[in-house]
Design a protein that fits this description.
The chain is an alpha+beta fold. The relative contact order is 0.07.
């Protein structure tokens, strides 16, 4: 069965409340165009009649617009790209002794801060990998969700820095002159 205009599969479209050609009831119908010999045939059949004619359940044509399908495809591709980028990300060094060898000019405080920051980067990347994998494979998603280590990403509150407040007041004084 080919479409008369495009020489492709029959055009199927769901339309609400047309009269079914088979049972003559006004129901939600599937509109079908076919080419028979040298004429076009138009039929409007309800879902119940199609099921009895074919003897199986009928898959409804998708109601998604072409734009919606393309958007969904691009979102899916975007998640694939994010997963691939996260998998290609190198693991950051978190061992302070290795960091000291890599950066001998850094102080102990800088090394420990860098080790903590690298640990946060590794945890965030692992979370991203899991999230993207479960988005692409929703049947594998755990029922309890993905473990999130919130304590690593809490916002820290710092005491007022006296030196910083002195610099700010000096800057205000300079700006006022």
């Amino acid at each position: 069965m080919y479409n008369y205009f495009t020489n492709s599969k029959p055009v199927r479209k769901i339309e609400s409340y047309r009269v079914c050609d088979t049972c003559h009831n006004q129901k939600e119908t599937i509109i079908d165009f076919k080419k028979l010999s040298d004429t076009r045939e138009f039929s409007s059949t309800c879902l119940a009649c199609l099921q009895t004619i074919k003897g199986t359940s009928v898959k409804l044509p998708s109601r998604k617009s072409p734009l919606r399908r393309r958007i969904n495809m691009q979102v899916h591709n975007s998640h694939k790209r994010m997963l691939n980028n996260a998998l290609n990300q190198k693991v950051e060094v978190t061992d302070p002794s290795k960091l000291r060898d890599m950066y001998p000019e850094f102080t102990d405080l800088q090394i420990t801060r860098m080790a903590r920051l690298n640990h946060k980067i590794n945890v965030a990347n692992d979370f991203l990998i899991e999230e993207q994998h479960y988005y692409l494979n929703p049947s594998e998603r755990p029922s309890g969700g993905i473990e999130y280590q919130a304590e690593l990403f809490e916002e820290r509150v710092f005491e007022d820095d006296k030196e910083l407040s002195t610099i700010i007041t000096e800057q205000i004084d300079i700006d006022d002159q």
